Prior knowledge:
The chain is mainly alpha-helical. It has helices at 2-8, 48-64, 78-89, 95-113, 123-133, 140-156, 186-199, 204-219, 223-227, 270-288, 309-323, 331-343, 348-355, 360-387, and strands at residues 12-15, 21-31, 38-45, 234-235, 240-243, 246-248, 253-255, 264-267. The protein has three domains: 2-64, Double Stranded RNA Binding Domain; 78-174, Tyrosine recombinase, N-terminal domain (DNA polymerase, domain 1), CATH 1.10.150.130; 186-376, Intergrase catalytic core (hpI Integrase, Chain A), CATH 1.10.443.
Amino acid sequence: xxxxxxxxxxxxxxxxxxxxxxxxxxxxxxxxxxxxxxxxxxxxxxxxxxxxxxxxxxxxxxxxxxxxxxxxxxxxxxxxxxxxxxxxxxxxxxxxxxxxxxxxxxxxxxxxxxxxxxxxxxxxxxxxxxxxxxxxxxxxxxxxxxxxxxxxxxxxxxxxxxxxxxxxxxxxxxxxxxxxxxxxxxxxxxxxxxxxxxxxxxxxxxxxxxxxxxxxxxxxxxxxxxxxxxxxxxxxxxxxxxxxxxxxxxxxxxxxxxxxxxxxxxxxxxxxxxxxxxxxxxxxxxxxxxxxxxxxxxxxxxxxxxxxxxxxxxxxxxxxxxxxxxxxxxxxxxxxxxxxxxxxxxxxxxxxxxxxxxxxxxxxxxxxxxxxxxxxxxxxxxxxxxxxx
Length: 389
């Protein structure tokens, strides 16, 4: 009220074009809680008293709307707030990140909080949820972060007075050993490669899969990086591969790697170079037979530009079963590649670059247990050294 009275004193008499006399005043309402900008408005009335009444009402409406001129959004449930948040969030992230966010919401967040009234969500609810989630999934911290962002957006929109997720304590991560990444056993790998060597000449689709498997194993590339490769990315003279993009099999789009470190040039061995040359000739022949030009993509087929990931995953499972070895995923080729290099003596810094990890810590956290296993071999080397004295 004092702010209104201060500006009401400056009420001006205005004569309109039709000769009608009115009174007008500029009223300062305050600082907008959302934009942070000063808000002013003009009030007009037939009398000075009417101008004062209108100014007071305008001030009251501004305060009642949360000190903002933005229209208050009618949101009461967590699901409604999530939808509002996603409208803005989707414009700021890559397609893969958005897909992952939707998965976390659908699988872990909305089933718990979706139907709850915003003012009924308390710290105890969120703490209990994240404590249980920590025993179910490895990336429980990501789910907790998404929930925290959504509720903070509710605070910004004046829908809740504070963010109950801010005071939640994240549980300690489970020991890495419990969720150790899966490598392909040395004997199983030899059995698998031998089997594919015999199977590849019998049909083109088997040959195609064999080349894909061997390239993943030889480079440590992610599946999406491999199927996004173009022939122009491979330097046959210098035996290198330039990785600059990745194929998202969920949204079926090609985008940039997850981080700048993902853009890299890696060396490949002569045997892999020879395999790729032979495969390129075979691929071109297949396209020529249907009257199509040579494809730009390394793993393009006459049926589709990019391999069907579900079909390829199913095929990999069948090959493992036929070879009589435990099943593994495409990502296991990447982990096995890293394992082979570390056991051969490569440094973590070099491995970080080859795998395209954003930080050295990421590489060491993922593969440090291999160093511990390799360290045990030091005892054998020491014993042999003593025997040779």
